[in-house]
UniProtKB/TrEMBL annotation:
Example GO molecular function: DNA binding
Protein's name according to its UniProt entry: Helix-turn-helix protein
PROSITE patterns: HTH_CROC1
Phylogenetic placement of the source organism: Bacteria, Bacillati, Actinomycetota, Actinomycetes, Pseudonocardiales
Xref: InterPro entries: Cro/C1-type_HTH, DUF5753, Lambda_DNA-bd_dom_sf
Species: Saccharothrix saharensis
SMART domains for this protein: HTH_XRE (SM00530)
Amino acid sequence: MAAKRSTPTIRLRRLAGQLRRLRDGTGLRREDVEERTGLHSTTLYRIETARSRPQYRTLDMLLQLYGVPTDEQVRLKALYKQSAGEGWIQPWHESLREEYTTYISFEREAHGIRNYAGMFVPGLLQTEDYARAVVRGISYAASPEQVEDRVRTRMERQAVLTTERPIRLWAIIDEAALHRWVGGGEVMRAQLNRLREAVATPGTTIQVVPFGAGAHPGMPGEFVVMDFEDPLDTDLIYVDSQAGEIFLEAEADIERFRADFDRLVAVAKSPDDSVEMIAEIANR
């Protein structure tokens, strides 16, 4: 039987980030830690990127090596215990890519999401029929069962918009995505109407970058900026491309994508004008 998959929680990511900063503060490289402790540098990399949870004795060893004061050790060990919770993963997620299930786990704990989408409507705003057409078109080799599993997952993700404390979603969509007939005319009309309804959801903002805006920072590809309620949790960038899915959390990357999103806000139509544009396209 295959080992049960798990996904990281935001608490595990916070612990990983603090361990990485502690090591950086000592000037030690991962190879130096391996030489002094016997902990393989690859294992340390996985711990520092929240891909695996360290054993308690490993955590204690690292804290001792980094010379962490006693009171700070107590705080980090408490955070370690809290990080034991599993991220959101269901049996039908087993066929999904690890990076995608990791993204879902962080998405469920995010306070706000800024999403630029250039080629299709963001997943959190897709109708079921549109999502099915997207999955079939992109994953053309997937079995019918795999397609339905992915559509089901995408629909479940949208629960973050309707909880008691819904996330703040700011979606910027390129006009090209609104004209692409994904699934045919009826499916596309229903999708456009779904966007018009979505702006009534508390905390949801939609803007459209019109063709007339010319070249803009979103043209290289789609991206997501996630922020979290706890100030200790830094923003997280998620980029999905043909080359694969990556997470970025270096301060320079965060600032660059924040600036790109702000620029997209500036060149896009206002929220009210965007809804009017969406309605016009739907009526056509």
